[in-house]
Structure to design on (283 residues):
């Protein structure tokens, strides 16, 4: 009586396995094509980022931060990037940034239109919210398994898993930003003959842009939080350095790689927040 009856057990995992196997058998070519496209996109970002000399990156970070925040922050963030190179982790940082940027770009391309659709349709919103809850709360290792089966080891499943974890904030905040646009502004646009598409482009999206930028900021932060987990399925970068430090109990190497991830998180967070603040419109 103290144990749950075995005959009431539901083996839902069996049906999930069958679904993944069915996808692999019937749509294997499509997943191969998606994998090739993601690899090509990642490769282009890596080529571009490795093409830029390290000193040019420092100057670029300094100028952008000086323009967006102030000179003091520009000096501090440039020093952070310089320390990454001094730790011997410049290449790992570039590889990490390429995966994070790719994941964020794909998340924005998919998430912002879906967020707009969530704001336009209450029914779609009600169906989507439980899915987003599951994507954010389910342990990351669970959806690493189907990612590995569908795409194999390497960068592609890392991008796929990172997207699943990072896409909900931009969807939720895009929906929230559009829903918070004053109804009077929308009614005024319609009274002047604007179509729904014109109202969306000229009124709703500009007004919702600060909230959307906050969603993008959170998406970037969540993508960065996945770098160590992504390294477990073949993604190179700072996460792999942390993982190797754990395996070899190398405290020094783990600290260096970890502090570099912190540097990236601080710089990207402050820059995106400052850029988002510039898009605030009067209500």
């Amino acid at each position: 009586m103290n144990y749950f009856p075995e005959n009431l057990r539901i083996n839902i995992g069996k049906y999930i396995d069958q679904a993944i196997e069915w996808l692999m058998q019937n749509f294997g070519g499509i997943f191969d094509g998606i994998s090739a496209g993601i690899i090509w996109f990642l490769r282009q970002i890596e080529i571009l980022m490795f093409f830029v000399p390290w000193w040019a990156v420092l100057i670029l970070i300094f100028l952008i931060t000086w323009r967006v925040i102030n000179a003091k922050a520009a000096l501090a963030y440039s020093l952070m990037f310089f320390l990454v190179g001094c730790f011997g982790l410049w290449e790992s940082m570039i590889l990490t940034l390429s995966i994070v940027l790719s994941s964020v770009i794909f998340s924005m391309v998919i998430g912002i239109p879906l967020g707009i659709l969530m704001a336009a349709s209450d029914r779609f919103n009600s169906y989507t919210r439980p899915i987003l809850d599951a994507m954010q709360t389910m342990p990351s290792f669970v959806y690493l398994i189907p990612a590995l089966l569908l795409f194999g080891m390497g960068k592609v499943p890392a991008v796929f898993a990172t997207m699943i974890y990072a896409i909900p904030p931009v969807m939720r905040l895009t929906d929230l930003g559009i829903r918070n646009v004053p109804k009077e502004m929308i009614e005024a646009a319609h009274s002047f003959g604007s179509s729904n598409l014109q109202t969306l482009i000229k009124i709703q999206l500009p007004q919702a842009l600060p909230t959307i930028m906050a969603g993008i900021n959170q998406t970037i932060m969540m993508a960065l939080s996945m770098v160590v987990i992504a390294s477990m399925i073949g993604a190179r970068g700072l996460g792999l350095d942390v993982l190797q430090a754990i395996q070899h109990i190398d405290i020094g190497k783990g600290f260096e790689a970890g502090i570099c991830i912190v540097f990236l998180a601080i710089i990207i967070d402050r820059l995106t927040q400052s850029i988002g603040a510039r898009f605030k419109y009067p209500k």
Notes: The first helix runs from residue 12 to 51.
